[in-house]
Amino acid sequence: MPSGFRPDLAAIRAAHERIRPFIHRTPVLTCTAIDDMVGARVFFKCENFQKVGAFKIRGATNAVRSLAEEQATRGVVTHSSGNHAAALALAARQRGIPAYIVMPRNSPAVKKEAVAGYGGRITYCEPTQPAREAACAELVQATGATLVHPFDDEAVIAGQGTAAVELLEEVTDLDAILTPVGGGGLLSGTLIAAKGIRPTIRVIGCEPALADDAAKSLREGRIVPARPPVTIADGLRTSLGHKTFPIIRELVETIALVEEAEIVLALRTILERMKVVVEPSAAVPLAALLNRPLGLAGKRVGIILSGGNLDVSKLLPS
Amino acid sequence: MPSGFRPDLAAIRAAHERIRPFIHRTPVLTCTAIDDMVGARVFFKCENFQKVGAFKIRGATNAVRSLAEEQATRGVVTHSSGNHAAALALAARQRGIPAYIVMPRNSPAVKKEAVAGYGGRITYCEPTQPAREAACAELVQATGATLVHPFDDEAVIAGQGTAAVELLEEVTDLDAILTPVGGGGLLSGTLIAAKGIRPTIRVIGCEPALADDAAKSLREGRIVPARPPVTIADGLRTSLGHKTFPIIRELVETIALVEEAEIVLALRTILERMKVVVEPSAAVPLAALLNRPLGLAGKRVGIILSGGNLDVSKLLPS
Question: Which of A266, A313, B65, B87 has its CA 20 to 30 A from that of B315?
């Protein structure tokens, strides 16, 4: 895909064909107890059951499989708070090429182990955007590997949009889809896919009030950087990118903000009532649906459960 | 069913017809990562997704639905460490009759809340078998309600056997089924169902070494009482009953014992790799499969994930 070209529904469908052999078709689950709490019919697209435990394998696989052979052999490189790193490492291993991963030192242990387990070659850096980008640039220089940005990349955006394609294949008459928003890869891919398939559908991005850079960016009409990371939803601490921001600005209905306590309660609800493991970021859309007046009473609502890489060690006696 | 009559496969099939409208048909999941760890193909019957989060709704519903109308109106009574209590409360509410529940004071909060949430009328007692039985007897005296024992009851045993029926409907060529064993309701129901449907199948009960009363009972040929409760697998702290013991003694291949650390690691594996929430008791069979030489390498093994009522509060900031 030429750089600067915005992916459209055709690009997402092509991505879907490309990645299908390498990813899981994840199930769509419902939960009567949650429907009753929300007052709507909710369809959860379970990307927590996806390979590497997150939707990120979709974009990473599309990016890796889109590289020409000679370019691919030199490998791929990225910086990520975790799930994209694991995803790129696995996608690269599946193609038999190296993956160089820059990770912040303070990433959750479960995510570091996952990256190493998938064969990623890790370089640690300080947990700031400039430190990540500098380390990446150095690796590109040294290896000739291709940078695959966690979200600000056309092939990644197209890949992330395939989750919404599958969701709408199974539940064709959704009134709305809610996704979490961090860097905006999932949200922008979902917007293009969902609006392309079903123009009347409402798509709402959901983010922690403590990481409200997407809401601010929309309000101010420019990319407002994220504040220092404090939200429990560690996957959503990044700022929007130059490729995701215009798509979101054009197509999204709104960005719903939720408080930390609301995220915790939504997480608890999913663990206790659905009996599935999700990470805090994945609980943000349900937190919005439970606590914000989104005009979705009685509607059919899709939620993308973005990932399941919860650090469960606190649950377990040592 | 006349008292003293041992349920057979026909009784379990009749129970299945009786309870089908009131329970979930739970999915059977597989996990490549776990297959690789075990060296066998494992099929998990997900009773953690069952109503009340445990297989116990099967036996409780069969018992409640087997009562004659006049007898039913006086209600049901039981003592339980939790899941049977919630199950009986829900089964009774579904039939519109009262459920009187005797629970040990030290039951996990999540289980107490569940019982109350399903409309059970709770009486607390000391966490000993005699205290439970005395409180139950008082309630029967006062209300005329029918005692539905958590496991030592023909209708309950027949109901619990329906999980294995469904598992064998979906995976007809299983070489073995593993279940946890506490009071033995699930194991004895599974034995009758599985051996009835597929006589060559191997059925193995799995229990914590710290609650090895079933293994001891088989060895000594008499019911050996459980030691004071210490295992993390709180659902498995009970002793075998006079109705479950003879069935298990006749039909079970062996009782595999597992250490506490093995249970914790199996629990962690299920949470992290399958991304489903189970309670410690449900992890005991996988712990056995991972750590004991059961002769199941390369075989097709069914595991009943007995319940999902894990207390997740430790995971969550307050």
Answer: B87
